[in-house]
From TrEMBL:
<dbReference type="InterPro" id="IPR051375">
    <property type="entry name" value="Tuftelin_GRINL1A/MYZAP/CCD68"/>
</dbReference>
<dbReference type="GO" id="GO:0035556">
    <property type="term" value="P:intracellular signal transduction"/>
</dbReference>
<feature type="region of interest" description="Disordered">
    <location>
        <begin position="127"/>
        <end position="151"/>
    </location>
</feature>
<keyword id="KW-0175">Coiled coil</keyword>
<protein>
    <submittedName>
        <fullName>TUFT1 protein</fullName>
    </submittedName>
</protein>
<dbReference type="GO" id="GO:0031674">
    <property type="term" value="C:I band"/>
</dbReference>
<feature type="coiled-coil region">
    <location>
        <begin position="4"/>
        <end position="118"/>
    </location>
</feature>
Length: 162
């Protein structure tokens, strides 16, 4: 009986040790799972970190490319502005020349009209004085001496350069 009691006590001790070992095993497995998840997290973080580094490098390259394109476009805009300013200067110079030519044309037209009036006056004097003249001409022969109807001529303006 003593042996049986001893065996039962040993058996009870073994069961108790079995339970404590199972508990320790479960705690160990839980710790191992936690460590694996931490390592997995570290690996996932390392993978994510590597991926983010690649993205950052790609974005830096894109930014560099866009900066180059922006500088190129700014150069083109500056060149276009310079061309526009040069064109404006040329146009202003040509406008000044055109205005000067218009003034000269107006002056010459006024002189031309004055000459036509003088010629008509002289022809009328000649016709009235020398009606018997062998070279008497009628006004119809002087078609060019008549004023043309059209836009009203500008007044006589004399430009004096100083």
């Amino acid at each position: 009986e003593l042996q049986v009691d001893e065996l039962q006590r040993l058996l009870a001790g073994m069961e108790k040790e079995h339970r404590s070992l199972l508990l320790k095993m479960k705690e160990g497995e839980a710790e191992l799972a936690r460590l694996r998840s931490v390592e997995g997290d570290k690996l996932a973080q390392q993978d994510r970190s590597a991926q983010l580094e690649k993205e950052v490098a790609m974005l830096r390259e894109k930014i560099h490319h866009l900066d180059d394109m922006l500088k190129s476009q700014q150069r083109k805009v500056r060149q276009m502005i310079e061309q526009l300013q040069n064109s404006k200067t040329v146009i202003q110079a040509k406008d000044a020349v055109i205005q000067e030519l218009k003034e000269r044309v107006a002056y010459l037209e006024a002189e031309n009209l004055e000459m036509h009036d003088r010629i008509e006056h002289l022809i009328e004097k000649q016709v009235s004085r020398g009606g018997h003249s062998s070279r008497a001409r009628s006004k119809s022969e002087y078609v060019s001496s008549k004023r043309l109807t059209g836009p009203k001529p500008l007044p006589l303006i004399r430009v004096v350069e100083t």
